[in-house]
Amino acid sequence: MPSFSDMPLSRMMNFVWYMLTRNADEQGRAKLRAKLWMPPKGVEPTPESPWSPANETGAFGALRAQLGVKNG
Q1: pLDDT (0 to 100) of residue 41
Q2: CA–CA separation, 37 and 2 (whole Å)
Q3: 51: domain range?
Q4: Is 49 helix (H, G, I), strand (E, B) or coil?
Q5: pLDDT in tens, 17-36
Q6: Which strand (E) or helix (H) includes residue 5?
Q7: What is the sign, positive or negative, of the torsion defined by CA atoms of 53, 61, 13, 50?
Q8: How many domains does the chain have?
Q9: Secondary structure tally for the chain: helices H, strands E
Q10: CA-closest candidate to residue 65, choices 38, 48, 15, 57
């Protein structure tokens, strides 16, 4: 079996998602998806927070570049 360091990022992320959701129903997957993408309740994202608009945009841009996805 190849190591994680040899695995393409897109394949590794699919594996991680599978491991997190393999025993979950659709409602459980939806709850996890919401938990991953939303800041904690009552917390306003600060500029250095990963949930700030600038940092989210930068993170998605970096992931898109690493996956080789072009704008358009």
Answers
A1: 77
A2: 30
A3: 4-67
A4: coil
A5: 999 999 999 999 998 987 88
A6: none
A7: negative
A8: 1
A9: 3, 0
A10: 57
Tokens of 63: 């992931």
> Could you give the CA distance from residue 41 to residue 53 in angstroms, rounded to a whole number?
17
Q: Both tokens of residue 20?
A: 């997190």
Query: Does residue 72 fall inside a structural domain?
Result: no
Contacts with 15 (C-beta within 8 Å, 6 or more apart), sequence order: 7
Domain-located, residue 32:
yes
Q: Which residues contact 34 (CB under 8 A, 6 or more apart)?
A: none
Identify whether 9 is part of a domain: yes
Residue 30 in any domain: the answer is yes
Residue 70 — φ and ψ, nearest 5°?
-95, 150
For the record, the structure tokens of 55 come out as: 């940092």
Its sign, for the CA torsion 6, 8, 9, 10, is negative
What's the pTM value of the predicted model, to 2 decimals?
0.48
